[in-house]
Task: structure prediction
Amino acid sequence: MTIDPTDVARYLLLGAHAPDAALAARIDALRTAALRVIRPARTWRRGDLADWRARSATLALRLAGCHAVYLACGTLGAGFDALARRTAATSAADALILQAVGAAAIEAWMDETEDEIRRGLAPGETLVRRYSPGYGDLPLAAQRDLLGFLDAPRTVGVSLTDTLLMVPSKSVSALIGVRKGSA
Amino acid sequence: MTDTIFTRDRLLFLDGGMGTQLQAKGLRPGETPELWNVTRPDDVRAVHDAYFAAGSDVVYANTFGANPAKYHGDAPLADVIAAGVGLARDAARAAGGARFVALDVGPTGRLLRPAGDCSFEAAYAAFAEQIRLGARAGADLVVIETMGDAYELKAAVLAAKENSDLPVLATVALGADGQLLTGADVDCVAALLAGLRVDALGLNCGFGPDRMLPYVKRLAAVTSLPIAVKPNAGLPTVVDGRTVFTVGPDAFASAVAALVDAGASLVGGCCGSTPAHIAAVRRVCAARRPPRAAPDAPRAARTVVTSGSRAVEIPFDDTIVIGERLNPTGRKKLKAALAEGDVAYVLREAVAQAEAGAHILDVNVGVPGLDEPAVLDETVQAVQSVTDLPLQIDTSDPQALARALRHYNGKALVNSVNGTEASMAAVLPLVARYGGTLVALTLDESGIPPTAEGRLAIARRILARGATFGLRPSDFIIDVLCLAVSAEAQSANVILESLRRVRTELGCRTCLGVSNISFGLPARPLVNAAFYTLALGAGLNAAIVNPLAADMMTAVRAFRALTGRDPACGGWIDAFREWTADSRPPAPGRRPAGAAAAEDGGLAASIRRGLKADAAADARAALAGGQAPLDVIGAAIVPALEDVGKGFEAGRVFLPQLLMAAEAAGAAFEVVRAALPPNAGGAVRGPIVLATVKGDIHDIGKNICRALLENYGFKVIDLGRDVPAERIVATARRERARLVGLSALMTTTVGAMEETVRLVHRELPGCLVTVGGAVLTADYAAKIGADHYAKDAMGLVRYAESLFAAAQ
Result:
């Protein structure tokens, strides 16, 4: 697991501005603290392409030309959230920076997850960009079926709140289509 | 049956995987396995029959997910559980002999607070219903398994103990690093479960039997309860998008045999294991006997308390620090914070003590007029959300103790029981029920005995009474009570003698609130540190002290280094690596080495750069250099902060930098305020009540607003996240707040925001509501009836400034 400070700066909405020395030092300290508590986990499994296409027009568009779909879920684990709660108790600045660190970390982890899935593809197959419930016309409620299918509470420790938020908070669920052709 | 079924002396064979067996018969991913109890009973029955034929003594009914929080099948839950237990019962009858049926209880699939949004009592209620139905259906025992969260595990075990008379076996699923999903290790789980008095405990799922070995060895070392193992048939691997388990029956059985040799006496398999695996285990292990448990001598018995993720041992031959600062006695700020419901202040105190090196934190909310049971319960849970240290629940109100202890995540230290009949009768049963280590105060109806002999006599009486509740000497630490030496000249001598004798004569660990000794004397910190050192030398195991008092922490660190308790003096070296004769402790937010305040612009520059520790130091230097406190505020702090705020509004300064600057300004202001006469720091504006609305657990935006408002001189009452509308209204009413700020991040929680706005307006005419959050816009804010839309935190500060300026 690596966390790129440039990604962290991007999630802090610094745009093209490089962080000054004081901010760069805080980013670095919080990256180190996060890496100590992150326990990343992931799972994926081939899903029912026709079923998912039928649920959402925008998802069907993303899956156009695909012959299979993977359902995936990744998380940084509960330890990161515990660190975030502790940090929020003492410094809003650190809490904000830590959120950006977490965002950069989970995105990097999902990119790695896609790489893993890609390694298992047949020659000539490629993945399309990942898609999640809550995008387009695919309702957030689809999380229930997606995470249920993956048995996510048990396999990676990710579950849903009553309001359909994933916990631990730094978790990503995704639908990733497979099609023929190069990337 | 309990006597015969759970024992560490004889092997008992459990069954193997159920879910993977059903999958082999056609169960699809995402399908509800328990529904098969009514739709495909023959298939479920066939699995039980096969396990009994393979030699299982106990099978688990197909009820793993049959709790109302998780189960959403078409058939009624009661039918599914009755059918599931019935099928296993039929199979047991058909197999003949001594065969047992376990009600299988798995996790709810929900994450409990604070990690998730499910309350402890909601999880408890789900388990309780499942267990009542299972007991009614005729199960012989309750098995709680595959738990990945110590808190949920506690809810399940309590539900089993309080809703049935059946024996309880509880097993957890460890991750590859030997921890539960929420971080507890084997020590932590063992202490929790022993405190809750399960009949047997152990491990299931997670990984294969070979990887379980070190954890079974550890369990055998820390518990005298029977140990169960149900490993997977190896690590799951994904082939062609399908999960497969690769360890065959013979390899599985020989690895399980090694677990038996390490101390396991209940053996079976989990995911991927089959009747063939169980038959092989039975064959290979039949002639084996697990090694006998170590004798449970009081001195050897460990004294352990836990949080949800960490076990802390109170060793007989070493010493630990209990942080005393979360106790309102003599602490005005904390008293006010508790009365106002200002959770943020309490949490900062907790984190500061943890960072200073405390091992356990005392939590006492005894403020006259407060609803102690409610406030203690809430405070304990809030503090647990920001620290992984175990807590000492400190109250003399048995009702408050019962509620806090029930909802505590882990096995708590309980302060306290004493030798009075009333105290023993109220407190001992609570600890027997919920688990806990007890601080026993050596006083009774006649007060505190003046002699060591008298104090030991009371301790003996408490221990004897505890034994009638199944509590052992290692479940107590004895507080010999600290009286002021200014009032009683022999006080310290009696304490030191008592400490020694409690250890040698009772074999018990000791505890003491050290700083009482100096009451009534000048230079109290100096007396405290000297006495602390003496007490440590006399065998003090747990000192209730202020971990932020450098003298005290220095005393204990020096004691440990000097008496061979700090290997290679590592702790001492870590704490004092950067010490010089005039050094201050290292802190975050310092300027790079070599850069001095004078050459980089002093206090204003430190604030602009967001260097917290430097800003405080610069403020101190400015005061030492003769600047008037109000000048430091007016000439440096306020202009620097204003500068940064304008930079943010102009897009030159970014949010993290704005916050860092605000916190640096806050640190400098703290220093200056301490130098001002009381009430001369300018009126505090507010209060403003902030909360993230019900159902929403995102609080970063709200926290940013709080930090900025506070550093701009507003008084903020922060109610936290997932806050019901009623609580927000009640607080605003009590505090006469003119402004309430609400935050919501998700479209799914904007409804709760709208409802809160409506309730505030209905109940509190004249109280304004400002709203903010990622999904909101000014239009939307107006639509849900809010008085103001805060585009960002700076916007909120400006709004508050205009509002409170107009009011003055």
Q: What stands out?
A: Chain B has four domains: 2-285, 304-576, 598-675, 685-807.
